Amino acid sequence: MRLPSAVDIAALDLAGLVRPGDTVVVGQGTGEPQALTEALVAQRAAYAGARVFVGPLFSDTFAPERTEGLAFSGYGAISRAGQIARAGRLDPVAAHYSALPGLFADGVIPADVVMLQLTPGDDGRPPSLGMVTDYLVAAARRARLVIAQVNAEQPWTFGGELPDDVRIDICVEAARPPVELAPARVGPAEEAIAAHVAALVPDGAVIEIGIGAMPDAILSALMGHRDLGFHSGMISDRTVDLIEAGVITNARKPFDTGITIAGCLFGGRKLFRFADRNPALRMALPTYTHGHGVLARLPAFVGLNSAVEVDLTGQINAEVVDGAYVGGVGGQVDFVRGALASPGGRSVIALPATARKGSVSRIVPALTGPVTTPRSDADTFVTEFGVAELKGLPLAERARRMIAIADPAFREDLERQARALFPGGFPTVVSTSKPQDHSR
């Protein structure tokens, strides 16, 4: 594919290109084309009222104090997108991640202008989206205008090749270090939870993971496993540690054998170096990374996700704390249902038992936010106090098991409220701080 001649970023006049009512879709996370997004913010007075669609943000480009006049939407409030949400300026789109390409393709979510980042091609290779392969391709096919930042400092990735039918209208060459996601701090609670989770993952399983302290702790706890596969919406530096240690081999996958599958490089330089021109890593669109039909064909697929809070029957809120968005629907339901459809699969929701330095239980009688994942999809829940297996159980028994893995300081109150919720009969909770393992 031939790209148009590059223009100087300093000469890029967005005032004549972006209109006040437009929706501008920008690359998410490490795929943010910072030269373009910084120009978008700097020139915003010319198109006040334009809306920016964002995913997770790892930079401060769109900090609320610098973006007056711009509106925001997105599929969640992940990482620094939470700053925009807390300022009351992010209008979330409640959609499964796997559905986003179709919503853009059909014009349900508008995309007037798309800003993306490309790695230049070489040796006959086409340009690559590099860091993130997501809904931008579908949005770009629909957009009036597509602007690309060509950045030679980001990795070139297999599977990220720019499709021939995606038109690039304007190119700017701006080589700069990609945005990085700093490692999260792992504490004792995360380490304890990770030890429980690792015991649930058999050798040869195919795993999916997210971002943050909990996923990092779980990945570290899997270091003693063998022949794991990896098929996920994102890949991190800790994943690379497992690949280099020979833990993740993808050897037992019935397809994509020997290949790590991901949609986003959410990490730092170690990950970027690993990904660059590496045929053992393939980037894929959300319809593949999160596709139900694909996940159901992976034996022993284990979805590893987290939650803001969980109620006594297994309903999950992964979006809202105290009325403010801190997460999103994202790919959680995609991976939960994919794991349940997988032969020998398991959906694991791992979360600390408390929040706010132990003052608030995250296992609650009733959710304080929306139901991200319904109780009909409940499977396995893990806290630092143990494992609760809920699939197929009556609601009162579910409540008993969830209380058993709650922080001991909250169990008596949770049991009292459970008796009110289930007046027809509620099993006695085992009052102990020892792990209550109800795994299969």
UniProtKB/TrEMBL annotation:
Q: Where is the Acetyl-CoA hydrolase/transferase C-terminal domain?
A: 267-418
Question: One MF term from GO for this chain?
Answer: acetate CoA-transferase activity
One family from Pfam that matches here is AcetylCoA_hyd_C
List this protein's GO terms for biological process.
Answer: acetate metabolic process
In terms of PANTHER family, this protein maps to: ACETYL-COA HYDROLASE, ACETYL-COA HYDROLASE-RELATED
Q: What is this protein called?
A: 4-hydroxybutyrate CoA-transferase
| Species whose genome carries this gene | Chelatococcus reniformis
